[in-house]
Amino acid sequence: MNQSQPLSEYPRPQFKRDSYICLNGYWEYAIRKEEKIPAKFDGQILVPFSPEVSKSEVNKVVLPDDYLFYRLNLDLPSDFIKDKVILHFGAVDQIAEVFVNDQFVMKHVGGFLPFEMDIKPFLKDGKGTLVVRVVDTTNASYHSSGKQHLKPEGIWYKPQSGIYMPVWLESVNDGCIEKLKITPDIDEKVVKLSFKSANKSAKLKLNNRIYEIEADKENIIPVKNPILWSPENPYLYEFVIFNEADEVSSYFAMRKVSLMTNEKGMKVIALNNEPYFMKGVLDQGYYADALLTPNSDEDYINDINLIKSLGFNVSRKHIKIESMRWYYHCDRLGLLVWQDFVNGCTKYDFWLNQVPLFVRYKINDHRYKIFFRENEEGRKEAYQEFLDTIDLLYNSPCIVYWTIFNEAWGQFDAKEIYEKLKVVDPTRIYDHASGWHDQGSSDVKSMHIYKWKVKVPSKHKLKGRAYVCSECGAYILDKRLKEAKKKEGFIYLLFNNKEDFQKEYIRFINEEIIPCKKKGMSGFIYTQLSDVEEEMNGFVTYDRKEIKVDIPVIKDINDSI
Description:
By secondary structure, this protein is an alpha/beta fold. The chain has 3 domains: 21-172, CATH 2.60.120.260; 179-252, Immunoglobulins (Immunoglobulin-like, Sandwich); 275-559, TIM Barrel, CATH 3.20.20. The chain is built from 9 helices and 32 strands. The strands form 8 sheets. An 8-stranded parallel β-sheet has the order 27-26-25-24-23-32-29-28, with helices on one face. Strand 18 (237-242) and strand 19 (247-252) form a beta hairpin. It is globular and about 70 Å long. 46% of the residues are buried.
């Protein structure tokens, strides 16, 4: 890794141009109580690491009433500059205002989604001073905060602020290709492709053939004898789309996820028109040195390879949206993704969020006050972020499953939202309420089961849906048992040696998961891939330095399912 310019790999592999300038590296920073842009800054920060983490070289906490400022001087090569200079932010937590040469450019609200803007009108001969002003309310407002908390403990983690994903520039001409939407259809043996551009026509190069395609319509391209994508064979079709103004490289995969009825009359999840049992692990995407940000691209690759080497075929990406490079690696290495939407959780309530783990009951989520969703603006913002998440990740073959709400955090109108989103993206499986407070909707009945035995619900409770156990296990393998009992031992099984842990894991698969699969369960998500802060139930330590188990032992039993 380039220490002075970390995470400098091309950030958007599924929409790639030759034009690219990485802006990761040392910027100036300041933390103030006033919103006025300061004349003097406090020092340097290593972008894209947040000020709260050691990798940033700042180690300061930004509070909800603080203003965090970034400053960087730009001096762009003349041969780089075309009709537009697009500035990209992978993610800025949580509310960002961007200025160039003291002129306001744009404001973006939301800490988990990328945004971009054309800054050429604000530059002077390719030069400019870029300033970003950030406010981060963490969990003190309705904005989506994921698992960050001002009082971190247990399942809630340290807050972080500001830029935590790559920042970069590209330059494009008028008439460039602005957007792609790719929908494979293995039944018809075609790929449906649409794009936006002021130039209404373009050419597509696929499998050494050139196709004429039109903007703002669905172009249907034949794919003869398609090679189907799966975790066992992650085959990607590469293509290039180009016109007089632009050229973009991309890829797609021929794969289909759907529900089908098995021989017992139960709905099950299918991949490529065949029942496919989903063996997953909960993946928080947190790293000891930098929280939401990996140290390097290799961190992504190593985690994906570890998941696969343990015999799992799914990552449930939990309450986080990753960099597009992570999804790219899942696409090419062959790992299915259950993608959670990110929600806000201003209050974690014992009766709403914890009791259903032990006593199954549900509350109608139209009761906004009970779910701490009284603010209408907050509900509208959340729904728009769901749409934006689908828009961002729609083309990623690895994603087969959307989780709208998890354990009632920020939940509202789950049934209605599912029905709307299923129209937006009908190509994937939806889980409207992972864990509990099931509103009787979506494609799956989704339960979290800890301590108790995993069982398949009655057909009456399934209501014609597939069944998944979307969280289970969470056995703690750690020598700090006294601390573990204090923090988490009220619910999770504890082990201080891998032999006993592995014996219990084998029993769990043989006596719970395999019988449930035979009864029609479509998949399970084991908690979890890595330790995170106070949580000690990972297969690997938080710093990724110690794999706690014998990989072949876990792989063998998972392969037997």
